[in-house]
Amino acid sequence: MLVDVQNVTKSYRGKDKVLRDVSFGLNKGECLGLVGESGCGKSTLARCLMRMETIEKGSILFNGEAIEKLPERKLRSIRKNMQIVFQNPTASLNPKLKIKDSLMDAYDQLKGEADLTYFQYTSREGFVKQLLEAVELPGDLANRYPHELSGGQRQRVTIARAISIEPELIVLDEPTASLDVLSQGVVLQLLTDLRKRLNLSYLFISHDLAAVQQMSQRTMVMKDGSVVDVFDQEHLFSKDRHPYTKELISIF
């Protein structure tokens, strides 16, 4: 098991609990889908998992190590194995940086500490070319700015940046929600190929059950801050599904 979340609770000041005793596991090499209506706590859970938010109660283990209270200096070795891709690629990329500089950001932050096995770092130019090829983008995009790319191309750049340090886990927070239907299909297939090629693990967050079905080996359903259902894909239509899962299936 790569990630083991145990009884995590989170609330914001003056509000009800956003996460209520959330527990789940994510295996190495697995894509775990997370589905639920807007506001159910999916993105908050992602941010807690990445230590971008603190939790009030519970524990988050990554490769068996509890990370919820680790000081920043000790988090460094953990963070190089965890990356996140957000919904809006435009907001994720610095508009003043060329694509090649954005692609080097994660690698540069680690100051060469990334343990690469798939990619080879010989030069910045060569490394950027490998990353663009990995997400099926032409090399001449390296010298362009984000506004010169399509939405689908920008999202593939953010994916390339995420895989640049070969993390074990990538949290995908609605990665196709801002894309047109054609670009969605391209990105989902690319993510599937990359998971297998680089032996990645995904937490794939979406409100789109069809996309979750396509991407994931298991699905976890959240409602009002709680996990109400977890199942293998072949058991989606089982009579044992939670009533809320059945409600989602009815509009699937």
Automatic annotation (TrEMBL):
Species, as recorded: Oceanobacillus kapialis
Domain of life: Bacteria
Name under which the protein is recorded: ABC transporter ATP-binding protein
Annotated keywords: ATP-binding, Nucleotide-binding, Transport
CDD domains noted in UniProt: ABC_NikE_OppD_transporters (cd03257)
Record's signal peptide: none
GO-annotated molecular function: ATP binding
Domain ABC transporter: 3-249
InterPro entries assigned: AAA+_ATPase (IPR003593), ABC_transp_ATP-bind (IPR050319), ABC_transporter-like_ATP-bd (IPR003439), ABC_transporter-like_CS (IPR017871), P-loop_NTPase (IPR027417)
